Give the backbone structure.
Amino acid sequence: MQARTGIIGGSGLYDIQGIEVIDTLEIETPYGKPSDQLLLATINGHEVVFLPRHGRDHSTPPHKINYRANIYAMKLAGVNRIISISAVGSLRQEIEPGHFVLVDQFVDRTHGRENTFFDGPIVAHVSMADPVCSCLKKELLTACSGASITTHASGSYLVMQGPQFSSRAESELYRNWGMDVIGMTNMPEAKLAREAEICYATVAMSTDYDCWHEEEEDVSVQSIVAVMHGNVAKAQAMLQCFFKDSSDKHVCSCGCSTALENGVFADLKKQSDDALRPIHALVERLL
Ligand SMILES: CSC[C@H]1O[C@H](OP(=O)(O)O)[C@H](O)[C@@H]1O
Ligand SMILES: Nc1ncnc2[nH]cnc12
């Protein structure tokens, strides 16, 4: 199967312009159903698999997204790298609403979300030291500049539980921690992508200044939506640039695609079929 690029669309991004649809994939995974059907399509001849993270009608809130089903479905669909597109609040004056940030680190403050495929009896511990694929991120930076989008080449994303926005004290705390943007969805998504040996990189689109900013109104859905429409148009342009330049023969030299090789605790060859079944697509190449 040709390696495919997955696109996970966040708030506002429910379809991709300029694609030729090949099929809609109704995928059932050992973890249940993904957020919606996956769209198999081509953009400028490149095969992509698109999934709107909250569903096409945005009916699934961040804490109820079945992240395991989403990532497992991407794996089953032959995806070897994921472009995550996300709306975020800005925690820095210089990251203005409408700017993009190519995230390189996350701090995970979520709770109660299923965050691993290795839930026993097969145990694994993958490295999350560098949660973002630097090769993919570099290609995304080129695409953002090709689309003339004001883009910050690095940044740390605080993943809050939500669905409520943060308090002023939390917002200040995260700024003091050195965080640059805040959102609710990229964890456990990035962790699960790493366990699935899928390269992952986030294009964070700033929609607001969160509530720390004294001269700006406190964040609200209304204010976000106003900026979001412009951001989504930029994301569409960025994707066109990405698939004009990018090669399908994506070779990752930063270890995402071999993350499990030093991470699995058990001898996979000695495991029962029952133990292997829920992770078969992830460990198949190691058996
Ligand atoms: C509608 S604003 C809050 C919402 O938007 C972001 O989601 P996504 O990352 O899918 O774009 C943020 O994390 C919140 O879930
Ligand atoms: N200020 C904010 N906090 C959390 N998630 C967001 N998504 C967009 N803006 C946000």
In short: The two ends are 19 Å apart (CA to CA).
